[in-house]
Amino acid sequence: MLRKSLLIASIPLLLTGCETLLQGAMSMGCALNAGPVLHPESLPAGRMGEAYSVRLAVSDAPAPVLGIYVNDSQPLPPGLRIEHQERDDHGWISGTPTRPGSYEVHLVALTYGTQCAGRRAERTYRLQIAE
What we know:
Elements: H1 2-32, E1 37-39, E2 46-47, E3 52-59, E4 65-70, E5 80-84, E6 90-95, E7 101-111, E8 120-130
Parallel strand pairs: 2-8
Antiparallel strand pairs: 1-3, 3-6, 4-7, 5-6, 7-8
């Protein structure tokens, strides 16, 4: 009877140890994953008053893409916006630029978290808009 009680009492401890081991293995796997990458590497120039459209893509994402966002401190030129459908691995910069200039634009793509916490891809672009 005592042996049976000890065996029953030790099962949760054994399972807890396995869970800790599995969590540690997942954490290590997450740390080794390089993370997602935002493409393209550079943006083509645009012209004020002319339609502009560039495809953005997220590669090597460990989970679906939650969103692609522009940093408010380094925004797109006036008249341009980001279009992205949640869970798609791509999006678009589109619109019609209304002001010429050289713009430094910072974009961030975020993924959902699964076994790993949500990941992010970032890239800063120089976008030229001619008159």
